[in-house]
Amino acid sequence: MISIGEELKRYIPIANLIAKTFGKNCEVVIHDLSIPQNSVVYTINNHVTGRKVGDAFDHLVKQVLLSKNFKGDCAANYMTVTEEGKEIKSSTVLIRNSKDKVIGALCINYDLECMKNMKDFLDDFFIVEKESIEDDIEPFEHVMEIVDDLVDRIVGNQDINNLKRKDKIELIKFMDSKGIFLIKGAIEKIANKLNISKVTVYSYLDEIRKNEEI
């Protein structure tokens, strides 16, 4: 059972208000970034994307932290697509604690499918930012600090020296799926964190991606 901490619990009324204001097609998700592999700690109207408590974050790195439109701790109006092919308009804002440390994120996901027949009337609402994701992106100020913290949380308190090869591959697979390796310098940082060489990280990534193609 995933519980929500007191600092993030304060955002539940805000999430409920947003969802009730915009109706059943508006999903709101609260993430606890201290537990990246199970970051979803609250959802409302989760039929929109199927997100559930205990799931991991998906778009935080690729479409929020690395977005050219990421300003003031938020990225608004970017497009995501569900596994079923539904187009979702999403916005994310980071949540900071009293010490100004990023501890979570609040995400709004709006199902656009029901609005396609109203497009002429709602053209302004359909403005979204579409960006291509490139490898080895130079991160914006403070983004690397957030990503470093995520990597530390993902690795956790595991004894790296006694960690088996398959476990290191699983950690790298998770980080790769979340876009961590798109950030410039990530290979070196993660190699150091896992006490392996850069060459080994590259070989693990090759192995992971080849297996995904099968």
Automatic annotation (TrEMBL):
Domain of life: Bacteria
Chain ranges of the YheO-like domain: 8-120
Pfam families for this protein: HTH_22, PAS_6
InterPro entries the UniProt entry points to: DauR-like, DauR-like_HTH, YheO
Annotated ranges, domain Transcriptional regulator DauR-like HTH: 147-206
PANTHER family per UniProt: TRANSCRIPTIONAL REGULATOR DAUR
Protein name: PAS domain-containing protein
Source species of the chain: Clostridium oceanicum
